[in-house]
Write a structure and sequence with these properties.
The chain is mainly alpha-helical. The chain has a domain of 128 residues: Tetracycline Repressor, domain 2. Helices cover 77% and strands 0% of the residues. Helix 4 packs across helix 6. The chain starts with 7 loop residues before the first helix and ends in a 9-residue tail after the last helix.
């Protein structure tokens, strides 16, 4: 039986998925292109042909993670505004970081690697896209958008620590009621 070759777009998508898992596990500095290529059953030069460099591949993974956020925010807030849009986006983000460990760790590794100027620029651009999406979809003012995104960063940390499964009073208080449910922009 002859195997059908993947298109470049399909191969790129496959590599991004594998790279996301590898970068989530070992970060930008601890991940090798060789490991990614091996898992994709392709050569290193093919990865470089599609993404240029390891840095280019990492930035593509970071961009894709911000695309996921913006797409989710647009999807869940369609037809909503104000508090309802904020709650929908907040709940969607909370579910994303709690249910998708790869996504969560890619986000955290992206912020941790911001000492590299190109990664920092990609993260700044992605964060800016999130800011504008929250602002445009909810109609919230800058202070509320800042509070919303601050809560998102707290959700990252809460998910990384899996506070939902911790039987401690302080952890239960953290996860009991999220402030976004009380905002009134």
């Amino acid at each position: 039986m002859k195997m059908q070759r993947m298109t470049a777009a399909d191969r790129r998508k496959q590599i991004l998925g594998i790279a996301s898992e590898e970068f989530a596990r070992t970060g930008f500095y601890g991940t090798s292109v060789e490991a990614i290529a091996r898992k994709a059953d392709i050569s290193n030069p093919y990865v470089f042909r599609l993404f240029g460099t390891k840095l280019g591949l990492f930035i593509a993974v970071v961009d894709a993670s911000f695309d996921d956020i913006v797409d989710n925010f647009d999807r869940v807030s369609a037809g909503l505004s104000g508090r309802e849009a904020l709650v929908a986006m907040g709940q969607a983000y909370g579910a994303l970081v709690r249910e998708n460990q790869t996504f969560l760790l890619v986000q955290m590794h992206a912020f941790a690697a911001c000492n590299d100027m190109e990664i920092r620029t990609a993260v700044q651009t992605g964060f800016g896209r999130m800011w504008h999406t929250v602002k445009n979809n909810s109609g919230a003012d800058d202070v509320t958008v800042k509070q919303f995104l601050s809560l998102g960063m707290m959700l990252n940390n809460m998910a990384a620590m899996d506070l939902w499964s911790l039987d401690e009073t302080w952890a239960k208080a953290c996860v009991a009621v999220l402030p976004v449910e009380h905002w009134t922009p």
